[in-house]
Each structure stands twice: as structure tokens, then as C-alpha cells.
Amino acid sequence: MRPAKKSERKSVAEEIKEALVAPGSLKGEGRKEMLESFRAIRKKITEQYTVEDEFVTRFLQLKFLIEDYVSSDVFSDRYFFGYFLKEYISRQEKKNKEFAWEIDIDPAELSLVINRHRRPTDKLIFRLDIHSNKNFPAQLWFKVLEKDRAIELLQDSSIIDREKKHVKRKLSFSF
Hints:
With 175 residues, this protein is mainly alpha-helical. The protein has helices spanning 6-20, 28-47, 51-71, 81-90, 96-102, 107-114, 122-131, 138-155, 158-164.
């Protein structure tokens, strides 16, 4: 076998590049046709979903949302433990009272947690872990709670001010 000429190597490299690099965005009618084709394929796939597939999809969306939120450096007033708990319950298409019964907790306590009037207890978090069959592990719920605490500290500096008087001595340096 003879070695490839320089001009042949270049054409092979160009072919590889063209195969790997996505073409530029389509415009006008070409883009419209591509999107319609994509929608038709997606519709065909979703029509084949079972009720269980839809149920699992809703929970995967929630889990990814929680994971993305706790791993980001962004703090949001929209997302907090109670918000995610409410979403967890509503994606099951259950009422709070029914869910509270399922995990053996007082419905009033559940409501207080959802509405930010009380912090969730460890028992609630462990029961969420068990209820979700470890799909939403306790560690994930604790990470949400940890982020809630960080937001609380950022928004209310008086917490630190109140506790200063109790510290008798502190480190003589800071980084």
C-alpha cells in the first residue's frame, strides 16, 4: 500500500471535519421544515409513552432540577426545600393530606414545612428518602436544606451580629 499524498490527506481530513462538525444553523424555510420534522418525531415517541413512563419522566425532571440547583452557585428565592417538597407531592397527583398520611406525619407540620414556617425534621427527610425508594435520597434533600441555610445567612446578617457577643476569642488571622 502506497503512502497517501499530501493533497489526499487534506481531503480526508476535510471529510472527517465535515462529518464531525455540525453545519451552521438553518434559516427560513429549511429551519421551519427541520423543526416540523423534529416535532413529528418527538410526538410519535411521546404517543408511545405509558402512564408509568410519564410518571417517571416527571420525577426525573424534578430530580434534575434539584441536582442542578444544589450544584450551582446561584441562590434563588424561588427554589427552597418547601418548593421542591410541594413539587414532589404534586407530581404524584396527591393532596398534601394524603401524602402526609403515607409518610405518617401531621398534615399541619407538612404544610408548615412547605410554606417556610418550619424547618423540616430529619425524620421527614429520611421518610422522603424511603418514600421515593431512594430516587430522591436523603443526601439530596439535606443539600437543598443546606442551600436554604446559606441563603438565610446571606439575606439576614443580623444572625451573625446576634451571635458575636457570645464569642469570647477568635482567630488572630484571616485568609
